[in-house]
Structures are given as structure tokens and as C-alpha cells.
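User: Can you predict the 3D structure for this chain?
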Amino acid sequence: MDILPLLEKLQAIAKEGLYYTKDVYDRQRYEKLLELTAEYFGQILEIPTNEVREDLKKDLGKLGIFPILGSVAAIFDQAGKILLLKRTDDQKWCMPCGSVEAGESPEQAACREAQEETGLDVQILELVKVYTSFPSQEYGLYTLVSTVYLCEMIGGTLTNSHEDLGLEYWNIDDVPIWHKSMESAARDAHQVWLKRQALGALD
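Assistant: Here is the predicted structure, written as C-alpha cells:
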């Protein structure tokens, strides 16, 4: 039985309780629930309990933040190579991506992340797909919903940022090591790009 989804729900209940409760005894109960959740998350994901506890507590004042919403920009050159960045955290290759911030749409987030991480100005062409990743050793404590958009460059200059160890256009089959589930998303985006190219050739 996979209890990670249960732990995710329990930590959300504990956080909401701590946010709303005025009763000192209820607060103690919710704090204990959060502590137990951190302990079991740590055991299952092999992360020190104190690290999990700090991660869970940093968002105590926020409600409605779960699942986390992310946005991804799939950018291809004229030859069908995809633009990837080599991440500083795990030295694996991924498309420009990040969390949707307050006051912006997923489309806006994809364009912003592309600009921040690559220096390119892009516009959205099409939604490729929406992906959901549940809590796991690979994805961490929270459910992540990612929107992937096919984008085209409309300006800017390819420029490295502090978040990457390199930027490069790749043939999808040649990428040595992918960040998390980026390969399947990139392949889906490439299929959308190919279809648009075929339709363009027919016009």
C-alpha cells in the first residue's frame, strides 16, 4: 500500500488546522499530526525528519497551495532540436520550467521561466499536455501538476542563468540523462511540433 498520498492529505489537514484553530489544545494536536507526518515522510523518502519538518512548516501561513502548479516551455529550433538546460542541482537536462507564481497564469509562467532561464522571449503556440506527479522518492513531498506548452522564440538572446550549467539544443534521442519525467514530456512536445510542421507544409 502506498501511504504517500495519505501523508500528503494529513499534512494538509494539519496545516489548515494550525492556520484556523484558536484552541490551544487543538493546536497541540495539529502540531503532533504534522510532526508524525514529517517523521513518516522522512522514513519512506529517506530524508532526515528535521528537513521534512522544516519544509512542511515553511508554508504554514498559506492555504490552497496543494497541489503545486508548475509550467514548462518546450522550445524547438527549425531542425526540431529541443532547447534544454543542464540543472545545477542534479546536473541533468530539462526544459525551462518553474512554479506558477501568485497573480500569473500557467502560460505567463512558462514564458517568464523561458526568459529567466534562457534569455529568450517566447510566445505560447499550444498546450501539449498536463502531467501529474504524486509524492515519491523522486518528486518529493507534494503532488505536482505541470502544464507543458509548445513555444516559439520571438526575441532575446540565448543566455545562461544561475540555474544552469549549460544551454544546448538537443536531438531528443541524444540527451544523455533527463531530469525526472522531462523525457516523456519532451517527446510529447516534439510530436506536437512535428504535427504543426506537417500542417504548415500543407498550407
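Strands lie at 68-75, 82-87, 93-94, 97-99, 120-133, 144-156, 164-170. DSSP finds five helices and seven strands in the chain.
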